[in-house]
Amino acid sequence: MTTLNGMNVAILAADGFELAELVEPRKALDQAGASTFIVSPANGEVQGWKHFDKADRFKVDVPLADADPNDFDALVLPGGVANPDQLRMLPEAVRFVRAFFDSDKPVAVICHGPWTLIDAGVARGRKLTSWPSLKADLTNAGAHWEDREVIVDEQLVSSRKPADLPAFNGRMLEVFAASRERAAAGAAPQGTRSTGPRAGDLRGGTH
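-> structure tokens emitted (207 positions)
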């Protein structure tokens, strides 16, 4: 079983994220021992959707305005149309996402989530997948798009839709674990990192 004890994982989401694409990866990460934190521009709680209908709301653990990429070891970007469409328009969200790529930290993105990668300037030259309607946008941004359930390109894991979640979660755990092992062996990504937030310090409530 993959063990991610000691890893702090940010899940960046705005109102309108696809419910399963946050809940299922978070469950897999929590079960593997990671500490997960919902980072959001939303105030207090962030609204999930199940396709075209409102679903559950979740406590925001770390407001985006207070989030420091150096406090986290990995990033998850759920999909849903409205979610990344808001994030890509927020300079602080774009900077937050780009920081993980600049520090060579692992990122897992699904469905419409790769929209934010375009605005962060990190799509060019990468092999990835997404919801099919993003193919032209990603190709125009210089990415190599493929219609596959999951693609791993170095530290980037991507999938197309909720039906791909079993494969997505499995490869996400593998890539995150490999990054953790490299860090433990002394081959941490470039740049400085803090010791990271503790769940009791940042998580403001239950979800």
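The helical segments are 19-31, 82-87, 91-102, 115-120, 135-140, 165-184, 199-202.
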